[in-house]
């Protein structure tokens, strides 16, 4: 009898745990976008002397929008200093 009781409890506990995994989590997208996280921009460049390399820009802790603005600033700064790159394939925004 005790074995049957323990087996029954184990089955009920196992079945109940499967329902807990189906919990819906509501995310506030504005809260995520506006939260401040580390911002780094990685750019694969052709240096002014013709060699290639990778440059990193540290945007500090900022929102996702702020990180995007820093990326634009950093890419313009690199271009002004003579670096060339394809902004669609050579630039990586790392936020978080």
Automatic annotation (TrEMBL):
Annotated signal sequence range: 1-20
Name of the protein this chain belongs to: Uncharacterized protein
Highest taxon of source: Bacteria
Keywords: Signal
């Amino acid at each position: 009898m005790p074995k049957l009781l323990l087996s029954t409890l184990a089955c009920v506990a196992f079945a109940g745990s499967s329902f807990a995994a189906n919990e819906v989590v509501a995310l506030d997208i504005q809260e995520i976008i506006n939260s401040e996280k580390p911002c780094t921009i990685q750019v694969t460049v052709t240096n002014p002397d013709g060699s290639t390399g990778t440059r990193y820009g540290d945007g500090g802790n900022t929102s996702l929008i702020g990180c995007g603005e820093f990326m634009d600033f950093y890419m313009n700064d690199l271009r002004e200093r003579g670096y060339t790159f394809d902004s669609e394939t050579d630039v990586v925004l790392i936020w978080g």
